[in-house]
Amino acid sequence: xxxxxxxxxxxxxxxxxxxxxxxxxxxxxxxxxxxxxxxxxxxxxxxxxxxxxxxxxxxxxxxxxxxxxxxxxxxxxxxxxxxxxxxxxxxxxxxxxxxxxxxxxxxxxxxxxxxxxxxxxxxxxxxxxxxxxxxxxxxxxxxxxxxxxxxxxxxxxxxxxxxxxxxxxxxxxxxxxxxxxxxxxxxxxxxxxxxxxxxxxxxxxxxxxxxxxxxxxxxxxxxxxxxxxxxxxxxxxxxxxxxxxxxxxxxxxxxxxxxxxxxxxxxxxxxxxxxxxxxxxxxxxxxxxxxxxxxxxxxxxxxxxxxxxxxxxxxxxxxxxxxxxxxxxxxxxxxxxxxxxxxxxxxxxxxxxxxxxxxxxxxxxxxxxxxxxxxxx
Length: 377
Fold this sequence. Notes:
With 377 residues, the chain is an alpha/beta fold. Helix content is 41%, strand content 15%. The chain folds into 2 domains: 14-264, Type I PLP-dependent aspartate aminotransferase-like (Major domain) (Aspartate Aminotransferase, domain 2); 270-375, Aspartate Aminotransferase, domain 1 (Alpha-Beta Complex), CATH 3.90.1150.170. It contains 15 helices and 12 strands. It has a 7-stranded mixed β-sheet with strand order 2-8-7-6-5-3-4, sandwiched between helices. Strands 9-12-11 form a 3-stranded antiparallel β-sheet, covered by helices on one side. Helix 2 crosses helix 3, helix 5 (67-75) runs parallel beside helix 6 and helix 13 (271-294) runs parallel beside helix 15.
């Protein structure tokens, strides 16, 4: 199997899965001890490790199950009024777009979807499109740190500062960012930031986080309101009290986050910076190989790539119609060639692309295999 789709769900290392299995064994052997008496002391080491990793204070972080949950918490906590506007881009993630659609519908607000260019010449074009769409009624801008289908690393710090100057708070959907790009949330300082840890950090599924600026935390409610709304714990913020216990769940994915960060950081001599640089270089090399082979143009500058790259399919494959939940050619690549890679359609009119991921277990030979297999479709 050539697994070139790390970006969708990650891949959890065996030692981390073994740790989670042991935590689950302990939880089921004595659930009262695990979930009541020792819950906080098991959770806090992961929160502290995560805080160091993303450049934040532990008091400003809570765990959630995925970035979509984080987006729900923020957007559904907004006090929107009729005529207010929410802003996003056409390259956003469908699940998060749906959160905005529903919030706008309920409040009688307006959703502004910015038509940012793709292919794109650089970050300035995205900056110009987003800022042009801001109005005096814009209450929140949802921005991707790394877009999903198009795999662009947006000029996020510039966008956050420019929107802040216009009085627009930003909610960053950082689903792909932790582990792919260097993060320092205290420096970036949007209004809110949510990110997945099951993707590039390789924690178990169900591990993600929400960061909120301290002055905005009091208005945030989790999607599930539970005991923490009227029960406080010594040494924790009210923000953490509300989010840390969403009812009975399996919290072991959160408790594995610290060890996942440490384990991945030990893979290469240079630690996380070396791992990010290695994956970025491999994504750049993979895209160049595919573009040469299929005689297509790269849709964005190299500077906008992280550890993924989206490449247009050859011209002869562009006229094939959509075919159900999963693209028919994507299924053929898996069934006939043992290659897992996602296909998507971007733009108006839609262009067919595929997106390759580059994680430490991937090799150039796998992208050559992909190149040859697509030529046989």
